[in-house]
Amino acid sequence: MRRLAFLLRPGWIVLALVVIAFTYLCFMVLAPWQLGKHSRTSRENQQIETSLNTPPVPLTTLLPHQDSSAPEAQWRRVTASGHYLPDVAVLARLRVVESKPAFEVLTPFVVDGGPTVLVDRGYVRPEGGSHVPPIPRPPAETVTITARLRDSQPAVPGKDPFVGEGAEQVYSIDTAQIAALTKVPLAGSYLQLVPDQPGGLGVPGVPQLDAGPFLSYGIQWIAFGILAPIGLGYFAYSEIRARRAERPEPPPPAGEPGEPGEKSPAPKTVEAKLADRYGRRR
């Protein structure tokens, strides 16, 4: 027990707590975070690949009523007939398309015999760095559009909608937030136009099918979580061995009595042992 008493010293206790906290973060926070991103990316890649190889379907088969959404069918191509609400428009700001800043133009679309959905008509480039450019109005007559189904995005905390340069502006395409802003009921999913559609603007491309490095990052955090306590155990074992080597050897047991006046040799000191090992200086 005396050999292990040094583990109760403040320095070792702090080190042990740091290793425990780091291991917890690796297994419970960092690895799940990266593995979760890998799962979401893989799921989205599969949805994109399916949409590229599947013909469009009527929107009402996936969004039959006003309150419906279809997260399992994201990126699926759909067709819809109806009309835009040209007097209602919202800009999604701080977007990046082809590595350049952009506004995405959002307009409600009333589907014949179906729900009212939010349509991402595409993007426009800001003028003068960040100013809203003139935006063409969508057609007011009945049209048929082809678009990709998209999931509603979560609202950005602390970033509320505002009116700037005569346009309602938001920081994410959150259909619930935009419905409350425009007073127009919207379905849970929204549409992103494909090229050459009525009312379309610049069309963002489909994301590349790349799983990214998230799986390898997740595995690395798991490995770090395993190695950290192993390293602590190794350092503790090394300290025990070093302390055991520094302990003085007990004196040899008394032997047979020698000649009168003969004394037992004194135990060697650490310096004497080192001298015997490496040779005395002459």
Automatic annotation (TrEMBL):
<comment type="similarity">
    <text>Belongs to the SURF1 family.</text>
</comment>
<dbReference type="InterPro" id="IPR045214">
    <property type="entry name" value="Surf1/Surf4"/>
</dbReference>
<keyword id="KW-1003">Cell membrane</keyword>
<keyword id="KW-1133">Transmembrane helix</keyword>
<dbReference type="Pfam" id="PF02104">
    <property type="entry name" value="SURF1"/>
</dbReference>
<dbReference type="GO" id="GO:0005886">
    <property type="term" value="C:plasma membrane"/>
</dbReference>
<feature type="compositionally biased region" description="Basic and acidic residues">
    <location>
        <begin position="270"/>
        <end position="282"/>
    </location>
</feature>
<dbReference type="InterPro" id="IPR002994">
    <property type="entry name" value="Surf1/Shy1"/>
</dbReference>
<feature type="transmembrane region" description="Helical">
    <location>
        <begin position="12"/>
        <end position="33"/>
    </location>
</feature>
<feature type="region of interest" description="Disordered">
    <location>
        <begin position="245"/>
        <end position="282"/>
    </location>
</feature>
<feature type="transmembrane region" description="Helical">
    <location>
        <begin position="214"/>
        <end position="237"/>
    </location>
</feature>
<feature type="compositionally biased region" description="Low complexity">
    <location>
        <begin position="50"/>
        <end position="64"/>
    </location>
</feature>
<protein>
    <recommendedName>
        <fullName>SURF1-like protein</fullName>
    </recommendedName>
</protein>
<keyword id="KW-0812">Transmembrane</keyword>
<keyword id="KW-0472">Membrane</keyword>
<feature type="region of interest" description="Disordered">
    <location>
        <begin position="42"/>
        <end position="71"/>
    </location>
</feature>
